[in-house]
């Protein structure tokens, strides 16, 4: 292989009691690449993201960011190293304004932006996700889709190199979905790598360079979207045995 | 409402100067009432500095207040006054740092109970030490500090606590605490070291409480652990801050003024029913104005603005 991958996960394992949620997972993301993380419900995708972002600590296995070990670090340290995320159930800061939500991302992320420059950057980011001019609105008054946009703006405010999206495109209507796909694609042109847990197949096909498919905590397939989606084992994981 | 900065500064300076003249005109009773008001203003504002944004309800106010009082009781006659204040401050910050690191991982009701237990623990430790080591329970404090001087020191401390509040609100730390209050998981994932932020503010809040206790100590000529670490103080401060509203810096002040006057009135007229009347007041406040007076005022002005 060529250069060190941006993210390199080896033998990652996490148990909850008797359940092995993530079982010996290998996964890598190159700089500027969009990688899909697929699998049926309960296959360990969100747990894998939680292990990478530091929300959970792995039992065994290694996670390297640009070659440096990050497994088991506190989430705020991982965030400052350039890993930002969104959450499966959207989490915006309800008592802050839209503008302040983004400021919070700018202030503590990789660059520690604060003051007039941060104010301008925040407005730029809001513009970018389609919330331009709505900075003064209270976050609690936003619609679901706008909360998702805001969550993305807050994650981008960290100026990450790697963005973890946990079903960020779920629950959008067809028009919003097209906008969302364009938005994620535009991240690649900025050199931001994306690891996305997603169920929306249109999005996966049009965005992902490679996909990793998980089932019961294990990686069962790896390849381009077309390859993995026609893989018999993947089909079996989603739909069960055809000749049962 | 939007006054320019110089106007605000001059206005504040004039107000402070005016308040500084109180000892020259007030009689003994009024001055002691003014001291009481300032005492609770410092305590409730310091309490809300930490508990307002983080929503961690602390009942440890009197632990730090009492540490201040007792430092003066023990060292007041031995060392110079500024040095005594400095030692009290150091002790209060040290205890707050240890307690903060140990407990701010707790959340919700566990933190409340722990802080209440902490105040009792410190009281029992001091009692044990006095009974077994120094063989004195209770100390007489005869210091050369006049009532006027106590008032002025408290006024200075009040100004400091408000300045600290304004600076924090404008700082990254202030934003970090509001994020933590909303969603601690998000806070961690956008790069906030939540433990450090909470401990820093807890220590700051505790240092104001400790200094307040130290300054107030000469008010009593006799001090024992039951007086210095009276748990009612923690509850009173909590009620005042909640009544006023903890989301604004001036909020607690709006609770301090009516409640200090109410407590004064109840103590003077119903000394035997004081506790139960306080209890009723507490329940009514939490039930009727959960957002505090500051929140109520904002709602009213907003409604007015919408109607016109």
What does this structure look like?
- The complex is a heterodimer of chains A (244) and B (308).
- Chain A has nine helices and ten strands.
- With 244 residues, chain A is an alpha/beta fold.
- Chain A folds into two domains: 1-82 and 160-244, Rossmann fold; 93-159.
- A six-stranded mixed beta sheet of chain A has the order 6-7-8-3-9-10, sandwiched between helices. Chain A has a four-stranded antiparallel beta sheet with strand order 2-1-4-5, with helices on one face.
- In chain A, a hairpin with a 2-residue loop joins strand 9 and strand 10 (218-223).
- Chain A is globular, with a radius of gyration of 18 Å.
- Chain A starts with 6 loop residues before the first strand and ends in a 5-residue tail after the last helix.
- Chain B is an all-alpha fold and 308 residues long.
- The model of chain B has no long low-confidence stretch (mean pLDDT 89).
- In chain B, helix 3 runs antiparallel to helix 10 (194-216), helix 4 runs parallel beside helix 6 (109-134) and helix 12 packs parallel to helix 15 (292-307).
- Chain B has a domain at 27-230.
- In chain B, strands 1-2 form a two-stranded antiparallel ribbon.
- The A-B interface holds A 53-55, 74-76, 79-80, 84-85, 87, 91, 93-96, 100, 103-105, 107-110, 112, 114, 154-155, 157-158 and B 172, 175-176, 178-179, 181-183, 185-194.
